[in-house]
Design a protein that fits this description.
Blueprint lengths: L28 H6 L5 E6 L2 E6 L2 E2 L12 E7 L5 E7 L13 E3 H4 L5 H19 L11 E3 L4 E3 L6 E2 L4 E9 L6 E7 L10 E4 L6 H13 L3 E12 L4 E10 L12 E8 H8 L13 H11 L3
Parallel strand pairs: 1-5, 10-14
Antiparallel strand pairs: 2-3, 2-6, 4-5, 7-8, 8-9, 10-11, 10-12, 11-15, 13-14
């Protein structure tokens, strides 16, 4: 089994837009592009963005963006147009009216095009850093933005800082005995009908493979044998890179919830997963924007 081609991944994990990273070094780039009416801007308020239709973002001209934003260069569209992010904290009221309202990535990411979904993830991930980390973590001085919104430099101690990404593993567990069984867990913060893959952050000095084995055992009691990489997805809740795996249990009967983070674990048949993917029955699976959904649906499709 090999990792899937990027075209099979959920939209937020697809190839996305051209980030044109070499342009970030151009002095005054953001100000120059804000003065260009051809530039397209994605506004972010909290974790929401405006929609032109239920499955498409609304991009606006720089002049349409209210004052008070943090700005950053996202890259170039297929036609060469510059793309900027204008980031605001969460708002009680919408920043501006738009045809289909404002929505969070979790809610609409799976319905967007690869370009829109990737831009949403990029703008939200970068935007949270722009809003949350204005001060130098070494000396506490307020930093100056550079590289078109992609770095901060401390004028006091000279350190340069960059947006942080935290790797996390996410794992669907296959049975040692039954090719048509998949183990999923229900988080203690969810309702009892909601199930997903097992996930956790990679610890300092830990490999991805070791994190898979540790997290799966801690949360489900399962020691795993084979571990297979299936793809990755940036996920800005809060600043994660989700690295997806399938892992095979050594002993199905050892499955048990940890009772803290995971309230319940359950072996599902392929038919049960199929019905849940179709929205039938009481079991609720992850939304279409998530790599968890893709891990589950790929497993289901492999033997139907």
């Amino acid at each position: 089994m090999t990792a899937p081609d990027s075209t099979t991944l959920p939209p937020p994990a697809g190839p996305g837009l051209d980030r044109a990273a070499e342009e970030r070094l151009v002095p005054g780039l953001v100000d120059e592009l804000r003065a260009d009416a051809a530039t397209r801007v994605l506004a972010i308020a909290g974790d929401t963005a405006p929609l032109a239709t239920p499955d498409a973002l609304r991009w606006v001209a720089p002049s349409e963006v209210p004052a008070g934003a943090e700005w950053a260069f996202l890259g170039r569209d297929a036609d060469g147009a510059a793309l900027l992010a204008a980031v605001f904290p969460a708002q009680e009221d919408e920043l501006f009216a738009t045809a289909s309202g404002w929505a969070a990535l979790r809610a609409v990411g799976g319905a967007l095009s690869s370009r829109d979904a990737s831009a949403f993830v990029e703008a939200l991930s970068l935007g949270r850093w722009l809003l949350d980390a204005p001060f130098c973590p070494a000396c506490g001085a307020r930093t100056d933005l550079g590289d078109a919104g992609w770095s901060r430099r401390c004028p006091n101690c000279g350190r340069q800082h960059f947006p942080r990404t935290d790797p996390a593993v996410i794992v669907a567990i296959t049975s040692a005995e039954d090719p048509d069984a998949l183990l999923l867990g229900s988080n203690a913060l969810w309702g009892p009908e909601r199930f997903s893959c097992f996930a956790g952050f990679v610890e300092a000095g830990e490999s991805l493979e070791a994190a898979v084995r540790r997290e799966v055992f801690e949360e489900s009691g399962i020691a795993v044998g084979a571990v297979t990489y299936r793809g990755s997805q940036a996920w800005p809740y809060p600043r994660s890179l989700m690295v997806g795996f399938l892992a095979t249990a050594r002993d199905d009967a050892s499955a048990r919830a940890d009772g803290e983070e995971i309230a319940a674990v359950r072996w599902f048949t392929r038919d049960e997963i199929g019905r849940a993917l179709a929205g039938e029955g009481e079991v609720v699976l992850p939304g279409r924007a998530s790599i968890a959904r893709r891990l589950i649906s790929d497993w289901h499709a492999e033997r139907v």
